[in-house]
Amino acid sequence: MQWRGALFAALMLCAAGWPGGLAAQTTVRIAWYSDGNEGEVLLDLLKRFESANPDIKVTVDQMPFKAISETIPVQLASGQGPDMVRVTDFGGVARYTLDLRPYLTDAAYWEKNFGPFLGWMRVEGDTTSIPGFMTQLTITGPFVNKTLFEQAGIPLPGPKASWDDWAKAAKAVAEKTQVPFPIAFDRSGHRVFGPVISQGGKIFDEKSEPAVIDDGFKAMARKLYDWHKSGVMAKELWGSVSGATYRGANDEFKNAQVVLYMSGSWQIAQFDKTIGDAFDWVAVPNPCGDGGCTGMPGGAGLVAIKTAKEPKAVAKVMEYLASEDVLREFYSRTLFVPAHLGLAAKGIDYPTASPLAKAALGVYGGEVKAVAPLAFKLQGYPYSRLMFNVVISRLGQAISDEMTLDDAYKRIDADIKQQIAERKK
Fold first, then answer.
1. In terms of domains, do 168 and 240 share one?
2. Which domain holds residue 403?
3. Is residue 5 part of a domain?
4. Are residues 112 and 37 both part of a single domain?
5. For 264-279, what is the mean pLDDT?
6. Is residue 17 part of a domain?
7. Closest C-alpha to 250, from 173, 184, 191
């Protein structure tokens, strides 16, 4: 019986942390949403991490984007949030993020490869923290059902076409093919601002303070308003929700009910899977106006949260996911435009992408180079999401005949000023 006592004592010593023993396992949590297959890819990559780091367990809570955008900020405000979260509203969560710099083994790597995007994640006035990294760079732009154009016998407008050109062509195609939606926009302020800038909107005044309402903004707002009146756009999409609530047209597009869908590069993996080759879907350059032909940059990033109880473990997970080889595989398998400068320069192979998806990735890669500096400035502005939400809420009310466009303009300016002042308190 003596050997049993010796074995029990040895096991107790191991559990207490003796070298070579059973170390206590640390659990860290990630709140994550997906547009396509990125959640599946993340879980696969984390299995390898856990195999190499048995002392760290990574739990991934996969949830809808709406939960990330509406529920997580409430949790963070109460100190009950996850250790890491994938977000698009960096300004809204910046105050809750953890500076990883003290815990990283090579902060210079992060500055070199993610530098232009770190400013998007920081609180106003902060120039040094490293809150996280971009899981993807996105660019807004239109997808077109090319097959419908071919069936209608109407050529696609050229690369420098205006929004008026596309509206005329899309409506003609829809009428000939009996498709219900000539043009659909994501119900999102972010999607609206690329066209606004292309119409000449300046967004900010000479002091870099928000000044959204000008001739460029009014020109694009009037188009959206008139399109809903003339049938180029359908009220049943934007009108199905209210306030700042997001409404996409993914399902309508993949079911061949939309001629032109204004969304962005993050849809490629989903469309490659759900549409396949059922019809020819193509990305086209952003339509042009007096202000150029720009989309809006954006993307999702994984940020660390300052309430994390094990920041060293969080940093270790983040370093693994942000490492060049792992991130290359992540971008390749998810069909994402890279937000890592080194990988963007080297290029990403997409072996699993169909010819249609590869072509779309090529178009959006070109659109990155065409993004207006003003669009980057707006995306990096700490209160950009607030501005996006105000604009889509008030435009939505005008389009739903709850107020006039002129009243919407007045309310947009007043709401932005009021909400920024409240945020700064």
1. yes
2. 139-297+363-424
3. no
4. yes
5. 94
6. no
7. 184
Is the pLDDT at 366 greater than 80, yes or no?
yes
Residue 229 burial by Cβ neighbours in a 10 Å radius (0-12, 13-18, 19+): exposed
Please tell me the predicted confidence (pLDDT) of residue 23. Answer: 52
Pair (286, 207) in one structural domain: yes
In this prediction, residues 349-369 reach a mean pLDDT of 93
Q: How many domains does the chain have?
A: 2
CA torsion angle for 149, 366, 203, 205 (degrees, to 10)?
-150
284 & 420 share domain: yes
Mean pLDDT score across all residues of the chain:
92
Is 100's pLDDT higher than 90?
yes
* pLDDT mean over 291-299: 95
Contact 305, 84 (CB under 8 A): yes
| 2 pLDDT higher than 80 | no
* Amino acid at site 68: I
Q: Is residue 8 part of a domain?
A: no
User: pTM of this prediction?
Assistant: 0.84
Q: Are residues 240 and 261 in the same domain?
A: yes
**Does residue 266 share a domain with residue 192?**
yes
How far apart, in whole angstroms, are the C-alpha atoms of residue 147 and residue 259? Answer: 9
Both tokens of 28, joined, read: 């860290």
What is the mean pLDDT of the segment spanning 254-267? Answer: 97
161-202 pLDDT tens trace? 999 999 999 999 999 999 999 999 999 999 999 999 999 999
- What percentage of the chain exceeds 70 in pLDDT? 94
CATH number, position 166: 3.40.190.10
Domain check: are 293 and 324 in the same one? no
Q: Are 223 and 157 in the same domain?
A: yes
* Residue 354 is assigned to a structural domain of this protein: no
